[in-house]
Amino acid sequence: MNYKMMGRFIAQILFLEAAFLIPALCISLYCGEDASVKAFLITAAMLLVVSCVLRFLCRGAKSNFYATDGMVCVALSWIVLSLAGSLPFVLSGAIPRFIDALFEIVSGFTTTGASILPEVESLPKGIMYWRSFSHWVGGMGVLVFLLAIVPSTDKGKGFTMHLLRAESPGPSVGKLVPKMRQTAAILYILYIGLTIADFLFLVAGKMDAFEAVCTAFGTAGTGGFGVRNDSFASYSPYLQNVTTVFMFLFGVNFTCYYFLLLKQFGAVFRDEELRAYFAIAVAAALLIAWNIRGLYGTVEETMRHAAFQVSSIMTTTGFATTDFDQWPSFSKTILLCLMVIGASAGSTGGGMKVSRLLLLFKSLRRSFLQMLHPRRVQLIRNNGQVVDDKVVETTNAYLIAYVFILFMSFLLLSLDGFSTGTNFSAVLCCFNNIGPGLEAVGPTCNFSDFNALSKLVLIFDMLLGRLEIFPILCLFSRHTWHRTVR
Asked: pLDDT of 184-228, one tens digit each?
């Protein structure tokens, strides 16, 4: 285990987080929020000191870096990032209890959007910005951002791919270009471009500039922290429709946008995951619209709410235009299914991912055909390419781990005394990085009533869901810390 290289990387993460605090500090200074200014200054100073100490202690690190090192480094980086990111909430007094502050910032960085706050409009502007910005930096990944901006050196070539694989969502991670740092840079350029486009459309709809920035961060990261207590209910139909479209766009694999820039339209149209993602979203929106047709006055309003919630839940954003907990059971069941399905691999969305579900169905089909024709070689293909059996095995292992963690988390939450529907939807929406659930954690409620143990379980679930389970589980395996592990 290359501890020194991991220490150097975590030091860079802490330095970057200190830099991320600067805009929030400036906003607090401009608004005259003395408590927030002090909180951001203290936090930034602590991060810089720890970063410098780590860099000094980890000087002379060797360049060898393996897959296990990458997963451990990613997991530890996200834990440290979250612990440090919670300090402004506590020090400013916006969220006095540390466990609540940790829940809020982990929900932000993992783009979950679940909140312990009963209302958000009274938050200081600087704190509100930091809360929303955590979505944006967590959406594409803070380590991917670091790989994109840090100059490439010979010492860093050993761990770039392992870090990107450990943090990026999906059953497999490939390169857009030969160098992984260039791939990370391209991803963030696309990400920034779409975020700016979303901001401009929101401002064109007469949304306040500060609200537009925070909303664009939440939409881009598919996070869902709102700046109004009713989320999106009080915004105009135009703003709701714009956000519906951009939530859907940020749930698309960013590789598709790269192909569009290269004018490889055929590759985009032939993408199986994109077609399935689009078909599921349209079918779900139409079914829900049919089911709730009697709840709203016009067809336009019905379709708008149905499309918005489907886009919000499937991309795991978590914004809401209406209290969908009051919808019929059929519609709520569809939304629960969408929570599990999630968005596309290589997007900022959470959930199991459409591509992983396609692989599971294809794996099931191959097993069935092999029973019928034992001597025939059955291959699994994706977009015309044969899928490596290791990818299929990893996908099957992910499903097993997913079900086991879901069950154990549900069991632990049941000790808290809430209803079965509340506990199950709370676990489901945190594990899949959704945000609001049903009943006591519905779109008009929050997670503040859970006890400390339940909040820790849900924090753990949010991290597991964002990092696709395995990097976090690596921390609890004795084989991870064995010197010969490669």
From this structure: 778 888 999 999 999 999 999 999 999 999 999 999 999 989 899
Residue 111 has pLDDT above 60, yes or no: yes
Output the 3-class SS for 373-389: CCCCCCCCEECCEECCH
DSSP string for 45-95: HHHHHHHHHHHHHTTT------HHHHHHHHHHHHHHHHHHHTHHHHHHTSS
Distance CA(267)–CA(399), nearest Å, equals 28
* Residue 117 belongs to some domain of the structure: yes
Mean pLDDT across the chain? 87
Assess if residue 332 is contained within a domain.
no
How far CA 137 is from CA of 103, 145, 275, in Å, comes to 17, 8, 28
What are the structure tokens assigned to 428, written together? 């489901």
* Per-residue model confidence as pLDDT tens digits over 133-169: 999 988 877 666 666 655 554 444 545 555 555 555 5
Terminal Cα-to-Cα distance of the chain (whole angstroms): 8
Distance between CA 433 and CA 103 in Å, rounded?
A: 13
Write down the pTM of the prediction: 0.91
As for how many domains the chain has, the answer is 2
The structure tokens listed for 419 are 């209803």
449: domain range?
387-481
Give 385's strand partners.
382
For residue 294, tell me if it sits in a domain: no
Q: At what angle do helices 67-85 and 160-167 cross, to 10 degrees?
A: 60
Q: Is residue 360 part of a domain?
A: no
Q: Is the dihedral of CA 130, 136, 142, 146 positive or negative?
A: negative
